[in-house]
Amino acid sequence: MAAKRLGQGSRFVRWFFIAVWLTALVSACEPIDINNPSSSAPTCKPGDGSGNIYQTGIFPYIKDVIERANAIPTTTVLQTAVPGTPSGFIGDASSMPSLMSTSMPNLGLPPQQDAFLYLLNETMHTTDTRILRQENSDVVHIVITFLSPKLIQAAYLSDFLYRGETPGEFESRLSTALSKTVKREEFLFLVTLIPANRTLPGISNYMVEVTMDNTTLMDSSGTIVEPTHVEYNLKQPFHTHQPPESGLMGYPMGLQTANGCASVLDPIYNTTIVIATESIQINGIVNEPHSWTIPYAPLVLDPEYSEPPLDSLSYLNLIPNPPTPLFTPPSQIDPAFWVGYAQFIWGKITKGNY
Questions:
Q1: Distance separating alpha carbons of residues 238 and 287, to the nearest angstrom
Q2: Where are the domains positioned within the chain?
Q3: What is the DSSP letter of 50?
Q4: Cα 338 from chain centroid?
Q5: Residue 89 CA neighbour count, 13 Å, CB half
Q6: How far apart are CA 33 and CA 258, in angstroms?
Q7: How much is the mean pLDDT over the chain?
Q8: Alpha helices (H) along 128-247
């Protein structure tokens, strides 16, 4: 009798664990409500995986720059400063063509400057900044840049020409150079914290806590997504007496739902990217919510159109000759910020942390 009860008890325990295992298995397979973000939400590849925005060919304007660089004889020095002009300025300001009538491809710039102007323009277009304040004092600038396919290609192009590589080899080496970016299957963002008044005497030190892993990305379908990867330094308190801090943050390109794999930021329906956070504290005091809005995809798109980076022309006299990468972000927001920040984007994308 005792043996019979023991056998029954063993079967009960066995079926109990089977029931627990099946419950866990079913729960793991249930689709995630995309309107309730979760750090454990299963990611997926929309469609056949071709939805990866970084898996793209060379962009028309970049191809134009390469073709012009390839047409220059190998004996020609690409970096040519003009005597008697401000440092880094190419040509005479009095002979600069009108912005309204001339596009970038007709400026006749050396390839390095041509490529860097495109990089500068894309940096400006894919970046949004917010200033955090406490007691009417500027505390820190939070700069978020969407590392778009154009921006990454532009940074690689600047580095390619800077290193003296043969321009004609650029396109064939592009896919290999971008393979690591493609494998991440994430929308990539660079987050930079820049103290507002670190170098001024008598400025108080603030401790800023911005938990970037609690930020959310939102698109037009109402999808709310948390990042899948946030570099560790962005999760730590930031003291405003220290140098600028920077790190990468990635959001998934697809989330599993009841209807299958849902694309995040479908370019057909999304023209902007919105990143929001409510979890910001300065010296332990909760700051107001903040959001960053970044252009994503135009409503009208002609793949053959070679867009001239006109927005960056006003910075032409601030560009070093030749342009070079930087490995630390600018320490302050001033008129030269965008040039230095584009150089930093270049260094961050192509060389990492040196």
A1: 14
A2: 60-207+232-251+299-351
A3: T
A4: 15
A5: 14
A6: 8
A7: 76
A8: 149-162, 170-177, 179-184
